[in-house]
Amino acid sequence: MTPARLPVTRALGALVERTTGRPCGVGELPRVAGSGGEPACAPYTILDSLPAEFGGPPLWDWSADAAWSYQITSVGERGDQVEWLADRVRAGVVGRTDGEWSHDLHIPDARVMDRELTYDAGGEPSVSAAGAIVSYVQRVTITVTSA
Q1: pLDDT at residue 1, as a whole number
Q2: Which pLDDT score is estimated for 59?
Q3: CATH assignment of the domain containing 100
Q4: How far apart (Å, rounded) are the C-alpha atoms in residues 143 and 140?
Q5: Using CA atoms, how far apart are residues 110 and 136, in angstroms rounded to an integer?
Q6: For the segment 71-130, what is each residue's pLDDT rounded down to a tens digit?
Q7: How far is CA 27 from CA 50, 70, 91, 123, 134, in A?
Q8: Residue 41 belongs to domain spanning
Q9: Under 8 Å CB-to-CB from 26, ≥6 apart: which residues?
Q10: Does residue 43 have a cis peptide bond before it, meaning omega lies within 30 degrees of 0?
Q11: Residue 82 neighbours by CB under 8 Å, 6+ apart
């Protein structure tokens, strides 16, 4: 049975929020808790799901593997702000200390086999009606197996 994606998405969003200390929206702008849906102030991150890869288990293993891919977009008002936030995302998701992950990624009914940073784009400025914003795109793949 392939591990469900939603628990991985929720756990990754919580990890990004915890390790950056900034709001993380899952598939949308993050909202301020208790504000009736008001968008959070920059800087913040947005976590989006990307296409996944699946691998069959060995014949002796009843669990199945899935490599769930995500894009984490850091959004801010200045280049230094998004680089700071992207550094924290990178350290939180794929950072290692003494050969172990620096931050736990606990997923119910699944075991994390690997975490990989697959793309790190750097800051991209843009101007909209709301003013100037800078975004920094990173893509990660979280490989899980059934627990």
Answers
A1: 66
A2: 45
A3: 3.30.2000.10
A4: 10
A5: 29
A6: 999 999 988 999 999 999 999 999 999 999 999 999 988 999 999 999 998 767 665 555
A7: 11, 10, 22, 20, 18
A8: 5-146
A9: 9, 10, 13, 46, 47
A10: yes
A11: 43, 74, 75, 76, 123, 134, 135, 136
CA distance 51 to 53: 7
Strand 96-97 and strand 110-128: pairing?
unpaired
CB 9 within 8 A of CB 143: no
- Counting the structural domains of the chain, the total is 1
CB contact at 8 A, 90 and 124: no
What pLDDT, in 10s, does the model give residues 5-62?
999 999 999 999 999 999 999 999 999 887 788 999 999 999 999 987 766 655 445 4
- Token readout for 100 is 């172990």
- pTM for the model stands at 0.87
